[in-house]
Structure formats: structure tokens, C-alpha cells
Amino acid sequence: MKGKEDYRSIYTQYMYSYPHKRTYEKVERLDLSLYRSRFRGREMGLYIHLPFCRSKCGYCNLFSVTGVKERGAYLSAVRRHSDQMKQEVDTSETRFTSFVLGGGTPLILSEKELEALFVLARDEYRFSFESGFSVVETSPYEATGEKLKLLEEVGVKRVSVGIQSFLEEELKVLERVQSTSDMYSALEKIKKCSFEVLNIDLIYGIPGQSVKSLIYSIEEALRFEPEEIFLYPLYKQENARLYHKFEMDFELQHRLYREGRRYLLEKGYVQNSMRDFSKRTKTGADCGFENTLSLGCGGRSYFDELHFCEKYVSLQEECRREYRAYVEKQDFLRNLSFFLLDEDERKRKYAIKNLLYVTGLSCSDYKEKFCSEIEEDFPFLTELCEQGQVRLSDGRWYLTEEGFGFSDRIGPLFMSEKVREKMGNYD
């Protein structure tokens, strides 16, 4: 039996990207001249961040603002941002193969505002909604029939809905404004459309939640036959409103994860990562260095070893301040935050992104990219293997069944001391 401290160490931080924005350094003006021609003939993703929300959930530590009625000034800034980036970086021969509207709550925009963003992706970045993969996030309340019809007509492939729980009492704990009736109504409308992928997000570890109530929410989600279900652990985020309002039962939280995982596997879902359960195993055996151009305040761009974004904030007052500054901005390379990955950090990112995914980490691919052996660079893999959390098979390191559940403890093992120090000192 593992001790409670072992379970606590699982739920310390998300490892969806490396390094975290809290490690980024401020720069007066970012020089992109070295990257101008790097993307000729390469594939890239386009991301637009829409920070608007009807209300900020108690667990949220993302960049979002509430109460904004007039969004035209922000969308004009996004257009200026786009125009400048196209001048700074030569994307004339770049193949934009993915397009994401994230937030915030993108569908809070009107149909006309949404359509303008789809036109931007299609006309300015030559994104094909027919052959590319497009994603739009939404909340149940904003998923109106008219907006869903627009998404369907445009050819959006994946719609992701933040449900979190189908029980009113759990939604209240999370400080969610949506009701269960909103959720059922939204999902019924979505199912009438022809989207390729419906994703439903659920949360486990909510104070007062039991195995029975979690399975109930999963069962209710399965009624709508989603192609994907993401099970997210509730974390205590210092910059979220819920931080001081509850204590975590980490042992129970891990039990909830195991029971939720077991139930989904029994229902025919495949586990692709700690959180991602899908009706199919996803490809993408060489993760880690995908490039993304992000527009909007709150998005993050990845240009090879260069990561950059607006200043990372999440508290509402700070988000409002950064939002106002973005709307008034004329030079979108000024007052940014950035991180430049050296060879060591690139190794760490590559290992994290691949090992924590179902397709695993290839020893030969790693050696080809970095001219070194992964076991020598990260000797703790052997200890993790002895603990039964990773395994080596046919020259590739994989998470075991137990290892998937420990992803957010395994991932930080790859973090450099420099990154740890910067995260600890972030103001």
C-alpha cells in the first residue's frame, strides 16, 4: 500500500507542456529575425485564444476575463496581431494543418464574430477545414443551435465541451454557473450535428465526490457516445479561487482515477494519456516539437526552440489589466515573455511529451535527434522500471498501467534545476 505522501506527489502540477509559462523571462521586444524563413514547407498549427467567459470557475487558473460585452476591440487586436506576425515570419509556404479556437469560451462570440475567425484561418493562413483538423472549445451554456450549425457548415472536426460533472452539488463546489439542464441540452444539440469528434471533459477529486458519483457522471456522458472523454484531476491551484476552500484527499482522488479508468476501459475506450480516453489509439509517435503560431492574449507560440507569449497571469484583476494592454497594443512583439530551450531542455521536453503518451519514447529516435542515449541522460528510468511504472519494449519506453496514473509525478522528474528554480521564483 502506498503512503498518502506518494499520492500527494501525483497531484502537484499538470505536465501538458514543458516548460511552464512561469519559467519565461520578460523581454522588451522579441527579435524573430532568426525564425523568418524557418517554416517554409513545414507543418504548423494555428491557435487563437478567446479569453471571454460568462464567469470564472473556482478551479480555473487560465487566462480569461468575465463581463466583457463588447469584443470588437479585442478581435481587431487579433487581426493586427495576425498581420504583424505574417510580416515578421514568412508563412507563405507553411502548411497549417491544425486550427484551434481555445479560451476562455470561444462560442461566447456571435456567429458573425466566429465566422470572421474562420475566414481568417482559411484566407490568411490557407487552412483547409476539409483536410486539416480543427477544434473548438465550448461551455454547455454557449452551445446554441445556431453556433453549432455554423461550426458544422464550416467543417469543424472536434468540439470539446467542459461538463466536469452531471451532479448539481458537485458543480456548486466547483463554482460552475452551468446547470445540468444546460449540459443535457447542449449535448443533445451537438449530437444532432455531424462533428467527427465530440470530447467531454470530466473532473475527479471534487470535495464530496465518491466513486459512485464519478461513475454516474461517466455513465451520463456515455449516453451521448463521445469519441473522447478527458478525466481531469482537480488540483489545488494557488491562483484559483478554490485554493483556500478545501483540502485534498489524495488517496481518494487516486482511487477515483483508477475506478474511472477501469470503467472507461470496460466500455471500450483506449487510454492515450493520463487524461485522454478515446475510442481509438491515436498516432503521433514523435511528439514534442510541433510548432504553433498563437494569436490573442493568453496563447503561446512555439517556434522550434523558442517559446513565447504575453505575460502569464490568471487572477481576474491581473487578466483584466493584461487584456486592456493587449487591446491597445500596436507592436505585438513588445513586452512579451519567452523561453529559449537549449539542447538539454529540448531533450527534456521531447522525453516528457513522448513518454507520457501512449506511443511511448523511442530510444533510436532519441539517439538520432540528440546523439546520446536516453538511459544515460535520464538514469532514473531504470528506477521507474523497477517500480513498475515504465517498461522497455522493442527499443521504446512506455508507461505501464500504473505509470499512466503517476504521469504528473513522472513528468516533473525530467525537469531541469533551472526550470524548477524559475518556477519557484515566479512573481
TrEMBL record:
Keyword set includes Iron: yes
SUPFAM superfamilies in alphabetical order: Radical SAM enzymes
Keywords annotated in UniProt: Iron, Iron-sulfur, Metal-binding, S-adenosyl-L-methionine
Signal peptide, first to last residue: none
Every Radical SAM core domain range: 38-275
UniProt cross-references to InterPro entries, sorted A to Z: Aldolase_TIM, Coproporphyrinogen-III_oxidase, Elp3/MiaA/NifB-like_rSAM, rSAM, rSAM_sf
UniProt-recorded name of the protein: Heme chaperone HemW
